[in-house]
Amino acid sequence: MTSPTTTASHRFCIVNCYPAASRENFDRSDVGHPHDLFRDVLRREAPNATTEIVYIADPGFALPPGTSIDDFDGFLWTGSDLTVYHTDDPRVAAQIAFAGALTRAGAASWGSCWGLQLASLVAGGEVAANPRGREWGIARDIRLTDAARTSPMHAGKPAAFDAFIMHLDEVTRLPDGTPLLATNAHTPVQAAIIRDGAAAFWATQYHPEYNLHEMGRLIAARAKALVREGFFPDEDAVATYAAKMKALAADPDSAELRTELNVGNDIIDPRIREVELRNWLRFIDSRAG
Known about the structure:
The chain is an alpha/beta fold. The protein is 37% helix and 21% strand. The chain is globular.
């Protein structure tokens, strides 16, 4: 165990970006809700912080009664199964509008996966379907760029690492003036800090908030798609792979499972896996003075 990153009494808003039908399917499929993954990190790394969850894809979305953007020290955006360039979808349009409001208010945000795509689109970048198809489970050989060496997001991160991931779309062009911080062969844009005045949106295509157990659950729930897309011969094979992920989560010292799943400390050890989130919390501290 290590000391928490911050003991400040920050107030965070976790923005769950999944529509209600998808959240209900998570429950039916035994998948952890992504807002709970962020809450788990915050309980350990910011134990005096308070969190509130909002469901931005639901009709009539609003911040909790009696609150405004300025009442929160930071906003954390989950992934989503929507498509960010479907801007005529009201569930997407609401998120674009709120992200724009945060920018105008000079707010600080973190975003995983969907968050990077959303923040890029709002700031003038471009997002499209990844021509290489789905990147799932573990993104391999992510490498930091030269710009990352002087960026606060990846301070203390290895120069090359693997990370949890699950996506079909990708950022094809970052907003003008936004340095690329991390990249790999499957998805060239893996991380960036998108700034506009006082606003800063830290975002990764990968998921530092996930762990082996939760990714195993998600992979099991995506069985039909993973078989249809040719990654597994059948759903039983998906279930076997997912079970091995969860078994390694329960026994992280298993050399056999580590070798079979090709998993190193960058995936198993939260002190490496969650570096970006801890650095974001330090950034929040710095903004609070």
